[in-house]
Amino acid sequence: MRPPHSGLQNITIGLLALQPYFHKNEHAYTVITHNATNKVTATLENPNDTVAVRYNDTAINNGDSVTWEPGENLIELIVFESANNRTVTYEITVIKE
After folding, report:
1. What would you report as the CA-atom Rg of the chain, rounded to the nearest whole angstrom?
2. Which residue in 34, 36, 60, 92 is deepest, having the highest Cβ count within 10 Å?
3. Is the pLDDT of residue 2 over 80?
4. What pLDDT does 6 receive?
5. Whether 64 contacts 36, CB under 8 Å
6. At residue 50, what are phi and psi to the nearest 5 degrees?
C-alpha cells in the first residue's frame, strides 16, 4: 500500500502570484507586493502532517495576516511529513515595494 501524499498542496500569500508558480518539489519562491499586509496560508496534502510558519524568525499561525516591512521579508514554512518522518522547509521572499 502506498503511503499517503505528504508535503504542501499549496502556498498562498494573499492573492499574490508566487514566482515560480507553486510546485511541492520547489522550495524557494519570491513575491512582490505593494500591500501593507497579506494573509499567509499553507495547505497540507496530508491532514496528519503539520506546518510551522515563521515570519522574519518569529512564529505565526498558519492563515495569519502579516504586516510587511519595506524591502525583503522572509516567510519559512516548516512541514513535518508524518508518512515520511521528515521535515521539509519552504522559503518565500516577500519584497515590499
Report:
1. 13
2. 92
3. no
4. 75
5. no
6. -130, 155
Q: C-alpha distances in angstroms, 17 versus 32, 57, 80, 90?
A: 8, 23, 25, 16
Can you give the length of the chain in residues? Answer: 97
Ramachandran angles phi, psi of 31, nearest 5°: -135, 140
Interatomic CA distance for residues 83 and 76, integer angstroms: 21
Residue 1 confidence class, pLDDT cut points 50, 70, 90: very low
In sequence order, what E strands does 17-96 have? 28-33, 37-44, 50-55, 58-60, 65-67, 71-81, 86-96
Question: Which residue carries 519562491 as its cell?
Answer: 29
Is residue 11 a contact partner of residue 42, using CB atoms and an 8 Å limit?
yes
Asked if residue 46 has pLDDT above 70, the reply is yes
Q: Distance between CA 80 and CA 97 in Å, rounded?
A: 32
